[in-house]
Specification:
The complex is a heterodimer of chains A (256) and B (326). Helices cover 39% and strands 14% of the residues of chain A. Chain A is α/β, with parallel strands linked by helices. The N and C termini of chain A lie far apart (46 Å). Chain B has 326 residues and is an alpha/beta fold. In chain B, 30% of the residues lie in helices and 27% in strands. Chain B has an eight-stranded mixed sheet, with helices on both faces. Chain B is globular, with a radius of gyration of 20 Å. Classes of the chains: A alpha/beta (256), B alpha/beta (326). Chains A and B meet through α1 and α2 of A and β11 of B.
Chain lengths: 256, 326
């Protein structure tokens, strides 16, 4: 099971907590999937103070690790302030850092992300940066003190799957010891399985589950896919070949 | 008359219950510390759409079933209903949202551009197709609340601003009853009202968007209500710039003529909701709580009022939403 900042988590699946039809259905999604971490946004819900408390209490009651995020923050300053608030609200130094660079597709701002990561690490946070799959960006994030990377599969909420499998594989090969999580863009369990088959440590899903007709069933299917992918990776899969190759000689045909 | 009931609250839940109890011959007192219906009630800010089919896409079957009874009940109370149905549209790149919506909703008809032009010409200026749900209705929430309050007063229902607990007490105070209902939470909603004489719509239009579904409801005389955000926060004040920008953007996307609309009002409140976003008729001790109508106040209040009345007068247990914590 994945280990983040020294803490072992009970599942390879993380679930976001936004956009479900109701908190009850959200809770059922966690029950059926066994997801080990719940990410939760605080920026908009906090209002003038702790107005989001009722919902946050429901999240805490799920009995899983809560990973607050800085969703909705478009600047280093906003992200920094939101992280401070999240630390106080949830009594945790873990923060999933989002610094949004484009308001339309919500893609990360790599420059602001590095700066915010540096400041938050200096302030004692354990940062989970939501980043692109750019190798140099990821190297820089590790240099400033992040010990987890959360590259996107595709833009948030798009359900497109893995836009750049090559880039994601390269991250795994370059950082064999760093916990890697694909965050954002997955739409189907098969895509999550593929992430884990690449040797990733975890997958974070929100929209694909929350917006499914039956969110709890979809959460369960993601959990099974993630587990299958992780087992497959551990089982050392065969290398693909460029031609069909019978495993036993075909009777009556000569070997060529 | 021997039955005596005290209803706390005169939002849509309290007034519907008062109307139903009165219709069945009961004597009622309504305690409303803030006076006549107004902005202190969450339902004052409602969209007033009786749209069980559309709401059913993200709600449970029980919401659709009881919601379908609402239009007839409101009409029986003298409310003015517009039987024009609902239109659902999506912007170019969000067309896939329409497919999902259509698949999950029974009875939606897909209109092509010619059909849309015929039905709602201003919408056809910028949209090539729409989903039409014919059997949905809408009402003007504020006029409906004020009229119902006035009618009940005329019929002899006593409204008092002072707290008085006579007979069986039914608490319909929405979020104000939170200190008695520990699993009740607020879900913040913001809305905007604009006046625009350059656009005319005959029915509510829903704009599908992957992150924030929005609707626009024509109120007549060039007035439109844009709603509503849905934020997990119990804050009942402080509408934010981001929310208002989102709502106004949606109106602009629907028709660019909204850019020159006059901004009349920005509203905010928090909807009372239980964890499953379904309402409750809950008995605790000697009090009954009717609460948690979430975003379905006008749609579910009639069914809840009828079931609560059956419980109070006939001791008939409500078929849904009932909890006995005695």
């Amino acid at each position: 099971m994945p280990v983040f900042y020294g803490t072992e988590v009970s599942s390879q699946l993380m679930l976001g907590t936004a956009q479900y039809p109701s908190p009850a259905i959200l809770a059922e999604a966690f029950r059926r999937s066994g997801a080990g971490i719940a990410t939760v946004s605080v920026r908009r819900e906090a209002g003038g103070g702790r107005a989001g408390q009722d919902f946050w209490t429901l999240i805490k009651d799920l009995g899983v690790i809560v990973l607050p995020n800085t969703a909705g923050c478009h600047s280093v300053r906003e992200a920094f302030t939101t992280a401070q608030m999240a630390r106080e609200l949830f009594d945790t130094d873990w923060i999933k850092l989002e610094v949004i660079g484009n308001a339309d597709n919500l893609q990360p701002d790599p420059f602001g992300l590095v700066e915010a990561s540096r400041r938050l690490v200096d302030d004692g946070f354990r940062v989970f940066p939501y980043c692109t799959d750019d190798l140099v960006l990821c190297e820089t994030l590790l240099t400033v003190g992040c010990q987890v990377l959360m590259p996107w599969g595709a833009p948030i909420g798009s359900g497109m799957g893995l836009n750049n499998p090559y880039g994601l594989r390269a991250l795994r090969q370059n950082f064999p010891e760093i916990p890697l999580v694909v965050d954002a863009g997955l739409g189907l369990p098969s895509q999550a399985a593929r992430v884990m088959e690449m040797g990733y440590d975890s997958v974070l899903v929100n929209t694909a589950v929350a917006k499914a007709g039956d969110p709890a069933a979809m959460a369960e299917s993601f959990a099974k896919a993630v587990e299958a992918g992780a087992i497959a990776y551990g089982a050392d899969p065969m290398e693909p070949r460029d031609m069909a190759s019978p495993s036993t000689p075909v009777l009556g045909k000569a070997f060529l | 008359m021997s039955s005596a009931f005290t209803i706390l609250g005169n939002g849509v839940a309290g007034l519907s219950l008062a109307a139903e109890l009165h219709r069945r011959g009961a004597t009622i007192r309504v305690v409303a510390p803030n006076g006549a219906p107004g902005e202190h009630a969450c339902s004052w800010w409602a969209g007033g759409m009786l749209a069980p089919e559309c709401e059913g896409v993200i709600s449970e079957e029980v919401v659709i079933r009881h919601g379908r009874r609402a239009a007839k009940w409101w009409e029986s109370q003298g409310a003015e209903l517009s039987y024009n149905g609902t239109l659902v549209v999506a912007l170019g790149r969000d067309q896939d949202e329409m497919k999902t919506f259509a698949r999950r909703l029974n009875g939606a008809v897909c209109l092509n551009h010619a059909e849309l032009t015929n039905l709602e010409p201003y919408l056809a200026d910028h949209f090539d197709q729409a989903l039409f749900i014919e059997n949905e209705t809408h009402l003007n929430p504020r006029r409906t609340l004020v009229d119902l309050h006035h009618r009940l007063e005329q019929l002899g229902v006593m409204f008092t601003e002072k707290e008085a607990f006579e007979g069986q007490v039914i608490d319909c105070r929405g979020l104000a009853a939170r200190d008695h209902l520990d699993d009740l939470r607020g879900v913040k909603g913001e809305m905007v009202t604009v006046k625009c004489d350059d656009v005319s719509l005959q029915r509510p239009v829903r704009l599908l968007h992957p992150r924030f579904p929005l609707y626009i409801v024509p109120r007549g005389d060039g007035i439109f209500m844009l709603g509503a955000t849905q934020i997990e926060s119990s804050e009942r004040n402080r509408p934010t710039v981001r929310s208002v920008v989102e709502l106004l953007n949606a109106a602009y996307a629907l028709h660019p003529a909204f850019a020159e609309a006059e901004l009349l009002e920005v509203g905010v409140d928090a909807r009372p909701a239980f964890p499953d976003n379904l309402p409750r008729i809950r008995r605790i001790g000697d009090r009954i709580y009717l609460n948690g109508l979430f975003r379905h106040g006008f749609m579910l209040a009639p069914a809840l009022a009828q079931m609560t009345t059956d419980l109070l007068l006939d001791e008939r247990q409500p078929e849904d939403f009932y909890e006995d914590h005695r």
